[in-house]
Amino acid sequence: MTMSDIExxxxxxxxxxxxxxxxxxIPDAAINPYGKHKAKINPEYLASLxxxxxxxxxxxxxxxxxxxxxxxxxxxxxxxxxxxxxxKRATACLREPSLGPCFGMKGGAxxxxxxxxxxxxxxxxxxxxxxxxxxxxxxxxxxxxxxxxHWENSLGLDVxxxxxxxxxxxxxxxxxxxxxxxxxxxxxxxxxxxxDITVASEVMAIFCLARNLADLQQRLAxxxxxxxxxxxxxxxxxxxxxxxxxxxxxxxxxxxxxxxxEHNPAFIHGGPxxxxxxxxxxxxxTRAALKLSDYVVTEAGFGADLGAEKFFDIxxxxxxxxxxxxxxxxxVRALKMHGGVGLxxxxxxxxxxVTSGCSNLRRHIENVQxxxxxxxxxxxxxxxxxxxxxxxxxxxxxxxxxxxxxxNHWAEGGAGAELLAQEVVAMIDSTSSDFRPLYDNQxxxxxxxxxxxxxxxxxxxxxxxxxxxxxxxQLQEDGYGELPVCIAKTQxxxxxxxxxxxxxxxxxxxxxxxxxxxxxxxxxxxxxxIMTMPGLPREPAANRIRINDQGEVEGLF
Length: 557
Hints:
It contains 19 helices and 26 strands. By secondary structure, it is α/β, with parallel strands linked by helices. It folds into three domains: 5-129 and 252-430, Rossmann fold (3-Layer(aba) Sandwich); 133-249, Domain 2, N(10)-formyltetrahydrofolate synthetase (2-Layer Sandwich); 445-526, Formyltetrahydrofolate synthetase, domain 3 (Roll), CATH 3.10.410. Strands 1, 2, 3, 4, 5, 6, 14, 15, 16, 17, 18 and 19 form a twelve-stranded mixed beta sheet that branches. A three-stranded antiparallel beta sheet has the order 7-12-13, with no helix packed on it. Strand 14 and strand 15 form a beta hairpin. The longest helix is centred in the first third of the chain and has 22 residues, at 130-151. The protein starts with a helix and ends with a strand. The mean pLDDT is 95.
């Protein structure tokens, strides 16, 4: 009988976190333990490492997501274990899971099978409290904003043009649109408002892009919370919110250290949405791992069209990182879905569908190559996959000068990823990265959006109504034109229509809304229907989560 992820994690031996820190050369004085098996690393110690050379940075991305699953986090962990097995000092850098998906439909984000990070229950639940701190800082700003308006509103904020909502780290559709401040003058000015999920907060994006505490507070100060009647933006520092917000985030800003099932180090820190934000773990954790390791394996959210693009154009640009390699993860099952096969027929061999679905894989490979980063393909193997289907993948991408490696890390852990690890190292050693962002800072916002849409999504053009065009023009005039763009669209297609699988082209991408994230340092371009407060499915994962008679958590996945 196959064990569940949580059963595998629970039965695995786990080392005291001090021993994992020892592997990285971190002294005891720099470790702040959170129990026996997780710890935060002192930022002052990390700052002392600045003169050390960086290790090699490997991004794990994927094809366009499907319900069949791709296994990006599992591959990140498996590759880290595989690198350590072949004698390389490697560290994984992952995002923290959100409680919303954990209790909703997606589940947790600690890997799976024999390629996991542990303690799995802690990581998927409250962990070290970072998300609670981010939610508290965000909602403190909300409270200070309402308080300022209540007492005098000396800044002249227009209550109709407030841009700052509240957040909670749970899927709760009832909170998307609310009416607040009811009950009379003592409760403020009634208005329509709403909640986002914590991972969609600009504070989360700021947290993950800040280099240190001073940078964090400067970014918090730049958050635009609303506008006056004459459309003048008002920022968080105008109501003196940046100081107390930074205080709430001070401890959370230290990166979290845990371990894989094979006792290799993993930093898990921060977790912004990959739609409304950039979908990567914190810059602080990534830079720490680069100073402490020879190889760092990290991931970015969703497929390469969203995750890798934002990793390159937003995170690497902001943090001055130079990635050395990209691993694009695919599964035979997912490629069949892109080739038109339904979920119930995925267990049957279908070489033609795999070949057809490889159009999606091909575009992702070609897209990443446009950034000048060497690419390798990892096929996350399932037991039903056939040799003919594997051969079809190699044939379909054979002209793109990429290796296609079969990896069995889910079933075998690091041993199943040794070949992948060897080939990634060989590629890094033989092929220098010529990393470059897709567009220059000086390109106009409209030009940046069009470049991403036409170069990466296969779109023929972009369109927007006059209101959106005027917003973009105003942002240019206000000095935000050099910021990168963060395009929020469906993760299920290169287009804005989630039903269009494979590699659609020639479509027109409509821009529905523009949002400024001045503190994070990007402009969000909303295309199509993007939920910043998800709802629970008809049968949420929460229904299966419980504590058994032995006091152990069951049902997490």
